[in-house]
Amino acid sequence: MSGQTSEGNDYPLSGSPVLNIGTDAEGIVVERPNRFLCVVDIVKPEKLRSELVHVHDPGRLVDIVYPGNRVLLRKASSVKRKTAWDLIAGDIKGEWVLVNSAWHRKISEWVLNKKIIPFLSDIGTVIPEQKFGDSRLDFLLRENERNFWVEVKGCTLAMDGVALFPDAPTVRGKRHLEELIKARDEGHEAVIMILIFRQDAHSFAPNGELDPDFTMTFRKAVDSGVKVFPIQFSFENNTIIFQSLLPVFENK
């Protein structure tokens, strides 16, 4: 692989807790009838009957949500829900991997508040969920007269030490990249923040084999000056832990 950008991986805040996400049960996946549902046999703290569980993640998660794999669950906060449980994490090689994108906002806000990314360390104003073009991007940051448009993606797939996004074809993700390119064309700064939840990853790359259209647009975005920051986290004792920023490697 060639083509690398990196901020290094030696950080004073490495190992810092980011967010506690309480879980209520551990179970074994029985089946996944569709993208947003799975059936889980609850085995801890006590053995219960199979439960229908909501999967709050747009990916395929084929190496995480499959029959026989261990998962962590959280009771749904709303009694009006069709499913009483949410999927929080799955087991990969004995380590828990967060697979619930509902927490991405709080994690990325922690990154911004703690100034983990040097490129964004002088930001004065953080505004979430702002419309740009035909999309709603995750953050608009302001530093004096400069605007920084930020889109956040979660990454749960890794192969041969490389974190890969996406793990399912994403027209929406491609459109977000196109908006960031447009932002650069209009003189703004633009950033992709990749939240990586795999401990076996040592670098990041777009998943060209699975989604060549996204990958081609990713390359265009980087060439236009869009900054890419892959940030690695672990999930230990129900707590998200910041690890480091990873380098970007890309096949040419």
From TrEMBL:
UniProt feature coiled coil, ranges: none
What gene name does this entry carry? sfsA
Task: Tell me which domain of life the UniProt entry assigns to the organism this sequence originates from.
Answer: Archaea
GO MF entries: DNA binding
**Start and end residues of each Sugar fermentation stimulation protein C-terminal domain:** 104-237
Q: Which family does it belong to?
A: Belongs to the SfsA family.
Instruction: Offer one Pfam family short name for this entry.
Output: SfsA
Identify the residues that the record assigns to the SfsA N-terminal OB domain, covering every copy. 30-99
Q: Which InterPro entries match?
A: SfsA (IPR005224), SfsA_C (IPR040452), SfsA_N (IPR041465)
Q: Which protein is depicted?
A: Sugar fermentation stimulation protein homolog
> What organism does the record attribute this protein to?
Methanolobus zinderi
